[in-house]
Design a protein that fits this description.
This protein is of the alpha+beta class. It contains 5 helices and 6 strands, in the order E-H-H-H-E-E-H-E-E-E-H. Helix 3 packs across helix 4.
Length: about 160
């Protein structure tokens, strides 16, 4: 069974100030993207409540160590790894808190599934998911690369349109 959902989260805005505020909000003491900083649960790991975390974030545990951030000027690109599922609920919540931003998530979860979604104005827009379509006997030879449709990628024109 797969355990790690790897998400590339692209946060776009025409307003550099909105991106700076977003970046400051999600930064944690030891992570460039901290779910607890972004959407606080108020829980300590030794008193964890799976249901509360899932309701607030869309995944039951915090991000895994590591992660990365690339600042491309008009967008922030985060690499966020979480156990089992992407934190789509947290991404939607952040899009409500930062209405001048649009976020796009592309997630792969090892050999289990891949998904994409857009987030704007507190809404999840156009979420899609697919499973790895390989016969079991071919899994051992799989190169680990997902070959996803081109329209699953981040697109500035789509981000602008979602902001209206």
């Amino acid at each position: 069974m797969s355990t790690n959902a790897t998400t590339t989260l692209t946060v776009w805005s025409a307003d550099r100030g909105a991106l700076a505020a977003y970046r400051a909000r999600v930064a944690g003491p030891e992570a460039v993207f901290s779910l607890e900083a972004a959407v606080p649960t108020g829980l300590a790991l030794d008193a964890w409540d799976w249901e509360r975390a899932t309701a607030l974030w869309g995944c039951g545990r915090p991000e895994l160590p590591g992660g990365a951030l690339t600042d491309l000027g008009d967008r922030l690109v985060y690499q966020v790894d979480t156990p089992w599922a992407p934190p789509h609920t947290a991404f939607a919540t952040l899009s409500a808190a930062f209405p001048g931003t649009v976020a796009h998530a592309l997630t792969t979860c090892e050999t289990e599934y891949a998904s994409t979604a857009w987030f704007a104005g507190g809404r999840t827009v156009d979420m899609r998911e697919t499973e790895l379509d390989l016969p079991e006997e071919e899994l051992d030879d799989w190169d680990g690369e997902w070959h996803l449709p081109a329209d699953w990628s981040f697109d500035v024109a789509r981000a602008r349109a979602l902001l209206g």
